[in-house]
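Dear colleagues,

For the upcoming journal club I promised to circulate an example of a predicted protein-ligand complex. I picked one with adenosine-5'-diphosphate because it came up in last month's discussion. The inputs are reproduced below in full, followed by the predicted structure.
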Amino acid sequence: MTSSVCSRNAAFSGPAAVSLNGLWLEILSKVEKRIQRSQFVTWFKDTAILGRDGGKLVIGLPLPMCLNWHLEHYRGITLAAAKECDPLIEQLVYKVDGTLKDSADRSVNLLEHFPEQKKRKLPGKQEVKMAEGVISKILNPRYTLENFIVGESNRLAHAACHAVSKQPGGKYNPLFLYGGVGLGKTHLLQATGNAIIKFIPNSAVVYTTSEDFTNQVVEAIRVQKMDKVRQRYRMVDALVIDDVQFLANKERTQEEFFHTFNTLYEERKQIIISADRPPQELDLEDRLISRFERGMIADVSAPDYETRLAILVEKAKEYELFIDLPVLQFIAEHTTRNIRELEGILMQAIAQYELEQRMPTIRSISEIMGKLNKDQYLKEESAGFEKPQKRRPTFQEVIEAVSRYYSVSVQDMIGPKRKHEILLPRQIAMHIGKKYLNLTFVSIGEIFSGRDHTTVMNALDKIEERMQVDYQLLREVHAIETELGVA
Ligand code: ADP
Ligand code: MG
């Protein structure tokens, strides 16, 4: 960052600035196409070309925090875009210039030149009335076979859906998918419906849940129009019915479904079914179960770490949220139950980003996770589960746990020594003591050989700052917290 470069082109207004602004606009329009919008708006707002010296461009950034981000993430993209605009450009140097912030005349007005094209895609839940008595939820275009991440846990199910989409009514009929909540059954069902329509346009694909199907049957009985419903249902080319376990104890609906099933099956129409368990474990009439067992049965189970991570990367892209890989790794590592949970965390991160313009960090994500877990806990509690009484560890136990984890002695940890290898364990013990045991700075100081409270405050600031960016450290702290039962 040579100051001579800037002073030579120091006239920020006037012809030079205009042409530099024009060049920057041209470069930005290329950059914009290559990165997600949320990143673009956040990191390129209030930027400008401050000067040019031959092949060297001086890029002005409004805040110091932008500097690292640009150097790490955008230098390559920006330079490539700049070279496309002017092959003579060889190098970018960055300079932080606080006066650029909100100075519309000096930097490019990003929102004016690059207005938002589309609203964020969020799942829609519309219903269409296809014909009297037949209600189909609109297939959500967001679910496709292409954006479904395949891993060991769902490979067979995905392959079967793919085969069905290429040959509906063929050898995989019916197709029965089963698995726990939030593991991707609805996604696969809807994606297959979408794929069938793409493959055979104008085909009548009806997606319904067993609850909707039940409601339709009940209503048809009430108005005595069962025949009409039957006729209509039997005109569909592919019937997709989600969560058939809810047909349990609904004899009349099961009977109607049995007849519909038979008619469609005989006419070689595709039927796709999902449930939370395999056919033989369903609490349904035997004749229905034996129909389900005729075709292809595939399970969808909980994804492994790599699949979870790949799903997160895909979802973050889909929601146009830029998250550092270590943050995604952190989520994938700590969320094992189901994909919906993963998505819940991402949605919260998006909300946080939109409200506070705060890029997700491991710290902010772990706060979100803590809160979601707590909500889950409250839900379970209110559902009648008894809350196990957890004993809070004593500070002595905290110090012992940290000392075991890092193989340093308790004496060393609380003693006066300032050896490098005990500083971190000491800070972690202080952090856990403050966070979970609500100890005061003064009392923590007393335990650690009568240290002054400001020393404790500094130590806590340091460790908490490091935990914002150091993934490995956060993992270690989390492991200790888990062992202590406070996480
Ligand atoms: P289920 O019907 O089994 O309860 P869903 O199909 O509703 O689960 O899945 C929950 C969320 O997780 C959906 O938003 C879905 O898109 C997503 N999801 C699940 N598995 C995958 C996967 N393998 N790839 C991409 N997204 C997935
Ligand atoms: Mg579902």
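Two points we might discuss: The pocket of adenosine-5'-diphosphate (ligand 1) is lined by residues 148-149, 154, 179, 181-187, 311, 314, 339-340, 343 (CB under 6 Å). The beta strands are 48-53, 56-61, 91-96, 127-131, 134-137, 175-178, 205-209, 238-242, 270-275, 296-299.

See you all on Thursday,
B. R.
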